[in-house]
Design goal:
The protein is an alpha+beta fold. It is built from eight helices and nine strands. A four-stranded mixed sheet has the order 6-7-9-8, sandwiched between helices. Strands 1-3-2 form a three-stranded antiparallel sheet, sandwiched between helices. It has a two-stranded antiparallel ribbon with strand order 4-5. It starts with a helix and ends with a helix.
Length: 197
């Protein structure tokens, strides 16, 4: 049974993140834990946090690299069954709407409030209501978060124009589906963004 775990690890792509639960059904939990620790000790995988492992990406100059912090945090969420969304300001930055980034690594979640270290970085998980987690891991979800970052007073025509260029038909449909879960001011903005999609 350990061989099944090793085979699955060997066929994973560089940057892949996994935990013991990724191999449930292949072997008893104790066997999975021992196999992962043995693989980490041999250097075939890297331990990036308690219960989280990855296959490092090899950089020609920098050597083995961990996955991005966003990917590690998402893997942590999957491990415990939490939804996790990036901070509104980071969403706006990822979409190219601002050069600002949060001073701290803050993520929104339906799990408990928590401060932890993932991939050698301090991370804060902030519990929010489900309406603040629309579209986790989608571009449409990032657009919603970016709008929360700007707020009702930060919306202008220049921002509307930039957002219109980012939204495709699929994004527009998702945003329309979520309208009833958004605050009134955001519903009006979304309607302006998707009326011609």
């Amino acid at each position: 049974m350990p061989n099944l775990i090793v085979d699955q690890v060997k066929t994973s792509i560089p940057g892949a993140i996994f935990s013991a639960s990724s191999f449930s059904g292949l072997a008893p939990r104790n066997t999975i834990d021992q196999t992962l620790l043995r693989l980490a000790k041999s250097g075939q995988i890297r331990k990036i946090s308690t219960g989280l492992f990855c296959i490092p990406k090899d950089h020609p100059i920098l050597g083995p690299l961990n996955p991005s912090l966003d990917d590690i945090v998402q893997a942590y969420g999957h491990k415990f069954g939490y939804q996790i969304q990036v901070h509104p300001l980071k969403a706006a930055n990822l979409l190219g709407l601002t050069q600002q980034v949060p001073a701290k690594n803050i993520y929104l979640t339906d799990g408990p409030n928590r401060s932890l270290v993932l991939g050698d970085q301090d991370v804060i998980l902030k519990h929010v209501c489900p309406r603040k987690l629309l579209g986790v891991e989608t571009k449409a979800g990032l657009i919603v978060q970016a709008l929360y970052s700007f707020g009702v007073k930060g919306i202008d025509q220049a921002l509307i124009n930039k957002l219109k260029m980012l939204i495709d038909k699929d994004d527009g449909q998702k945003l329309q589906d979520w309208l009833g879960l958004m605050p009134g001011w955001m519903q009006k903005v979304i309607s302006m963004l998707v009326n011609d999609k």
